[in-house]
Design goal:
It contains two helices and 16 strands. The protein is mainly beta and 268 residues long.
Length: 268
């Protein structure tokens, strides 16, 4: 694909819509980009309180390809270490092409308060580089909480960048997205999980995401979802084999096409 077209797609997709800074892992992506009340190793990229479900040190790698173009991709790594009721996490992701790329690195801390409440916070370092314009960096903080109302229902909310930090130098001035998310996860049966998230960014309309996870057998889960603003649909499959978890997802954008991703996670 022509690099000029790719660059225009990045600006449209990353800045105008959702920003690459908030791209989630394949489990949450397959369920409609639901991150508010889903627990996963990649909760470090969404509601940090969700990492409190990790029971042993876990390392995860993620690769996403956008619109089936080999030049436009995201690479990410996450490490979660539980220490009794305290949870530490490191996350790193890179998105873009040579002419335009974003880096986000973060350190997370989450804690359980009893059996119901979890709270998490993450400090982020952001770097943005655009050819012929130079590079800039900034910092932000994300905060989140989850509450287990009962054994079936989890409520969650989180803020990305509530302090309204942004990139700002003499040649580049771009906002780091400030977004509020609230949602719920409902365990309909021991095999079916339903999830929903409502998201509102300062510069975009309210988005609603709906998703489902169906465990067809102990080792395999099928997932699907949709989001409304803009309208997209998602699908994916997850495999669990002993300590290894493999998750895949594909996102369908009616204007830009398909974006697949895969994640490998190993619990030590």
């Amino acid at each position: 694909m022509n690099k000029i077209i790719i660059f225009q797609l990045i600006l449209f997709y990353s800045v105008s819509l959702v920003s690459a800074q908030n791209i989630l892992g394949p489990k949450m992506a397959a369920m409609g980009n639901n991150g508010a009340a889903i627990t996963d190793v990649w909760s470090i990229m969404a509601n940090t309180a969700g990492i409190t479900a990790i029971q042993s040190p876990t390392l995860a790698l993620n690769y996403a390809n956008y619109f089936f173009d080999k030049q436009l991709s995201k690479q990410a790594v996450a490490l979660i270490v539980p220490i009794q009721n305290n949870y530490l996490g490191l996350g790193f992701q890179r998105y873009g092409i040579t002419e335009y790329h974003e880096i986000k690195a973060g350190f997370a801390y989450a804690k359980k308060f009893g059996n119901s409440l979890s709270i998490g916070i993450k400090a982020n370092y952001h770097q943005l580089k655009i050819s012929n314009y130079g590079q800039t960096a900034s910092f932000s903080v994300d905060v989140g909480a989850m509450y287990h109302l009962n054994q079936q229902l989890i409520l969650g909310l989180y803020f990305n960048n509530p302090a309204l930090q942004k990139y700002n130098n003499t040649t580049i001035e771009i906002d780091i997205p400030t977004t509020f998310h609230i949602g719920a996860t409902y365990l309909a049966t021991n095999k079916v999980v339903l999830a929903s998230t409502i998201s509102k960014s300062i510069h975009t309309a309210i988005d609603v995401a709906l998703g489902i996870d169906y465990q067809i057998m102990p080792l395999i889960s099928l997932r699907g979802g949709l989001s409304l603003k803009p309208f997209k649909h998602y699908a994916g499959i997850g495999f669990v084999f002993k300590k290894l978890t493999v998750d895949t997802a594909i996102e369908s954008d009616p204007y830009l096409g398909y974006s697949p991703q895969i994640s490998l996670a190993y619990a030590f």
